[in-house]
Design brief:
This protein is of the alpha+beta class. It has one helix and four strands, in the order αββββ. The chain has one helix at 12-45; strands at 64-70, 73-78, 82-87, 93-98. The protein has a four-stranded antiparallel beta sheet with strand order 1-2-3-4, with no helix packed on it. A hairpin with a 3-residue loop joins strand 2 and strand 3.
């Protein structure tokens, strides 16, 4: 065994292939990051939050604990364990649902 082995010759075609491969992968990664950032910016820039009613008039003596919204209606859960469903356009009370808490 020799103590100073001769280095193997490097094939110039292989070096050129690897350089092209690394450059292509770098460009692909940069383009992917730009596309992801662009999608995030366009998604968060649009105002897609639901429109809440300006004012909700509850029956006397009720206190709201939760609110949810559907298509054409919204509902308020009260401390008296009732769900009050209101019309989304007029704001009038459509339905009252009592929640049964017995096990």
């Amino acid at each position: 065994m020799t103590e100073n082995p001769e280095p193997q010759p490097v094939d110039p075609a292989l070096v050129k292939y690897l350089r092209i491969l690394v450059t292509t992968l770098t460009v692909t990664m940069i383009a992917g990051v730009v596309v992801i950032i662009g999608l995030l910016v366009t998604r968060f820039a649009t105002d897609s939050s639901p429109a809440f009613p300006a004012r909700i008039t509850l029956p006397d003596g009720t206190t709201a604990t939760a609110f949810t919204r559907g298509q054409g209606w919204y509902a308020v859960v009260t401390q008296a364990d009732e769900i009050l469903i209101f019309d989304g356009t007029t704001g009038s009370l459509r339905q009252t649902i009592e929640i049964n808490n017995t096990p």
